[in-house]
Design a protein that fits this description.
- This protein has 792 residues and is of the alpha+beta class.
- 29% of the residues lie in helices and 23% in strands.
- A hairpin with a 5-residue loop joins strand 27 and strand 28 (635-644).
- Helix 10 (317-326) runs parallel beside helix 11, helix 15 (487-499) packs parallel to helix 16 (527-554) and helix 19 runs parallel beside helix 20.
- The longest helix has 28 residues, at 527-554.
- The chain is globular and about 90 Å long.
Length: 792
């Protein structure tokens, strides 16, 4: 059949680089999106709850489960001795038991699982166990861990140049300490797993996880089975933020163990309190730093010792520490450095991945230092930042020896400085503060350079399946998981673009280990990069087959065939895509394909801590203006301007949403979200009533977010850049704006000792310190060193 030709239509059409709604947006709004707890329960489903340790460190002398088994509705209770296979759910080091055996290592550690007819009955019964403990000494803070040389892994060290000699030459040296707290992921959907026994020792686990393949491995080992016995499926999560990368394994394994032993389906759903008590968070960091700089403010030597609160086991602390070391430089060239990181072993929850994965904790230290240098020299911090920026052809090698080839930080910062009216607002704020004795305003502009890739090289791979059905509709399945960030939408756009069909003709199915095997976690901001490339590879193979078939039917050159706007343009003909597909099917052309992608050019030597660990860098900058009440410590973010480098964005609407969300989440980490353990090692901020994430009232009324006009120099998916983690560093500007406001109390002559989170209490401590320093040292230029809290 001949069709009229529309010149240029196919060439102008595109499915990527345009704003499209999230593929589940309508389902979210209508409450029809299916999460794990919404899956219809199989007949005979039981419900489980975990029995938790009440001690931070103790031997279990006796465990009496008789009161548990006597509770209404209880079917069974199981301990470590009942596990068919291996009692371990550690992602790297096998030091993380599913159920504690003989010894407990933190308050909240699971000791047993109880299975009952309802969730409520299981949860009530779990509290009835009688446990006799012999208490042991506990380490709770990173400072205590360092003092005791208590580590879950050997400390890391990265050196470049001769830091000691550089310090001896430096005209100025500053020293200090800083404490930056951790952060609860606080995903809306808590940890949950639903395990359903299948025939021939099979096990289906439907769970909320960022890493289905890892869940498959952990469950298989716990049950004493092979991976092919276990299928893990995840359609979507109600948020993950890293908390469901490795720590969903405990819940998946525990549910599968109970399902195997009872031979019935078992659902294990954590209540918020249990979730927060059991699971790890963002690592808190304690820093001891020393930096040498010249009269202009250029850094000539840097030494930092970072101690992480790892918790009781290694989990992902090693990679987190590595990324912190590799992000200490942020956007600045450091010629001579000595960077150390130790993963302190503490009797607290085993800390884990969190959006940024150590990058924010590494970068904030150098920003704190630059803020101090500027104040010491009486300069605007932005000028000191600019002076220390990486160059393009010189001063462009990182401490870990990767040469930066895509540096746009200067241009991006210049654009934001102009559009935000930074200089004029700086003058206006100074005038305001001069006449306002109580309310003080602060302003800060902070940059971001963030490396994209897993720092474990082999994880940078992905697979996908694309099916084209006879009616022309398309189904894509890939190894990434959807946690609200829009990975499915972006991958669907990539496939639609490759096949030239409208997005409404493409559908994404649940992530499933029986479809795409051996996948990496959806983490490290690589989800769309890796899985988009894999899906593109699969779709391209189908398109090439269709193009070859079209030439057989209509003549012409395969290279000249164009797909777009649901049409195939071949040799002067425009054939509807479904029509060509139907003809190809009848001609026995393969209409499905698998795709694979492995990021090229990556390498890393963990012994020397050098290499090329990142595919590219994402850049950004933000300006924040705050007002602080110096009598109460209360503050408000008045305006925030953010400019972010998403490369050639796949979907500007989703990417802007990611930047906005990351900004507010990072602001919460640095200001309101305080984790506090009492002296017995119990986490006291384990519910929304005591742990304060930002609310809508904390968002600035004037919030300006834009994407920087850029294209990735690397061959990423359609030259886009990641937007998952890097924007979380943008609210550094909020923290330093608060510090700037406090500094104005002492006419910017004193460095406020401000730890994070900058709660009202911390702000008041810093205000008092500045006022006290000024009062005690009138006429001098005092530099107040931080009095670091113990992080409890």
């Amino acid at each position: 059949m001949n069709h009229p030709v529309t010149p240029g239509l196919t060439d102008a059409w595109k499915a990527v680089g345009v704003a499209r709604p999230h593929e589940s947006a309508e389902l979210h709004v209508l409450g029809q999106a299916t999460y794990t707890d919404d899956i219809p329960e199989v007949h005979g489903t039981l419900h489980a709850a975990l029995g938790l340790s009440a001690k931070a460190h103790a031997r279990i002398v006796a465990l009496d489960l008789a009161p548990v088994l006597a509770c209404p509705g209880v079917v069974a209770a199981y301990t470590a001795s009942d596990i068919p296979g291996t009692n371990d759910c550690g992602p790297i080091i096998h030091d993380d038991p599913i159920f504690a055996q003989g010894e407990v290592l933190y308050v909240g550690q699971p000791i047993f699982i109880v299975v009952a007819d309802t969730h409520t009955n299981a949860r009530r019964a779990a509290r009835k166990a009688v446990v006799t403990y012999e208490e042991l000494p506990a380490i709770l803070t990173p400072q205590q861990a360092k003092a005791a040389s208590s580590y879950v892994l050997p400390p890391l060290r990265l050196q470049r140049g001769d830091a000691q000699a550089a310090f001896e030459r430096a005209p100025h040296v500053l020293k200090g300490e800083l404490f930056v707290g951790g952060q609860e992921q606080f995903y809306l959907e808590g940890q949950i797993a639903y395990a359903i026994p299948k025939e021939n020792r099979g096990m289906l686990v439907q769970c909320s996880t960022q890493h289905p393949s890892e869940m498959q491995h952990v469950v298989a080992h716990a049950l004493g089975l092979h991976s092919h016995h276990v299928t893990v499926e995840c359609r979507r999560m109600g948020g993950g933020f890293g908390g469901k990368e490795s720590q969903s394994a405990l819940w998946a394994a525990a549910a599968a163990i109970a399902a195997t032993l009872t031979k019935r389906p078992v659902k294990l759903r954590a209540d918020r309190d249990d979730d927060m008590m059991v699971t790890g968070k963002r690592h808190c960091f304690w820093y001891e730093y020393e930096v040498g700089y010249d009269d202009d403010g250029r850094i000539v030597a840097a030494r930092v010792d970072m101690t992480l609160r790892a918790g009781f086991s290694a989990d992902l602390s090693g990679p987190v520490a590595t990324r912190a070391v590799c992000h200490f430089d942020n956007a600045y060239y450091l010629s001579d450095v000595d960077i150390r990181a130790g993963c302190g072993k503490t009797n607290t929850q085993s800390n884990t991945a969190f959006r940024g994965f150590g990058g924010p904790q590494g970068a904030i230290a150098i920003e704190y230092v630059i803020d101090e240098i500027a104040r010491n020299l009486g300069r605007d911090a932005l000028d000191i930042r600019r002076l220390n920026f990486y160059g393009k052809t010189e001063r462009n090698e990182t401490p870990y020896r990767q040469v930066i080839v895509d540096n746009v930080i200067d241009e991006l910062t210049t654009e934001l400085e102009r559009s935000s009216e930074y200089r004029a607002r700086r003058e206006s704020i100074a005038a305001f503060n001069a006449t306002s004795p109580v309310l003080k305003k602060g302003l800060a502009l902070t940059p971001v350079k963030f490396g994209i890739a897993f720092n474990v090289t082999h994880l940078n791979q992905a697979g996908a399946l694309v099916h084209v059905y006879v009616d022309g509709s398309v189904l894509v399945n890939h190894g990434g998981t959807e946690m609200g960030q829009g990975i499915n939408t972006k991958v669907m756009q990539v496939v639609a673009h490759e096949l030239g069909v409208d997005l409404r003709h493409v559908r994404a199915s649940a992530t499933d280990t029986s479809k795409v095997a051996n996948t990496s976690a959806t983490a490290a901001s690589t989800g769309a990069d890796l899985n988009g490339k894999a899906a593109q590879d699969a779709a391209r193979q189908i398109r090439e087959r269709l193009a070859a078939f079209a030439v057989k039917q209509y003549g012409g050159d395969v290279a000249a065939v164009r797909f777009g706007a649901d049409l195939v343009h071949v040799n002067g003909h425009e054939v509807p895509f479904p029509e060509l597909v139907q003809k190809a099917y009848l001609a026995r052309v393969q209409l499905w394909s698998d795709g694979f992608y492995a990021t090229p050019g990556l390498h890393w030597d963990p012994k020397t801590m050098t290499g090329h660990p990142f595919s590219y860098y994402a850049y950004g900058a933000a300006v924040s203006e705050v007002v602080v009440d110096t009598l109460t410590g209360e503050w408000k973010l008045l305006r925030a301007d953010a400019l972010y480098d998403a490369g050639a964005s796949l979907n500007p609407a989703i990417d802007i949403g990611q930047v906005e969300g990351a900004f507010i989440q990072g602001m919460g980490w640095l200001t309101t979200e305080q984790l506090w353990w009492n002296d017995a090692g119990k986490l006291m901020t384990h519910a929304p009533s005591t742990y304060k994430i930002p609310g809508i009232s904390d968002c600035p009324e004037d919030f300006r977010v834009r994407l920087f006009d850029n294209r990735n120099v690397e061959d990423s998916i359609h030259r886009s850049k990641a937007t998952g983690e890097p924007p979380l560093l943008l609210p550094f500007s909020v923290f330093f704006a608060i510090r700037d406001a406090i500094s104005s109390v002492g006419e910017h002559r004193v460095n406020p000792p401000l730890n994070a989170p900058a709660t009202s209490e911390e702000i008041l401590k810093a205000v008092d310190a500045v006022q006290g320093s000024v009062a005690n040292k009138m006429g001098s230029v005092p530099i107040f060193e931080a009095t670091v809290s113990d992080g409890k």
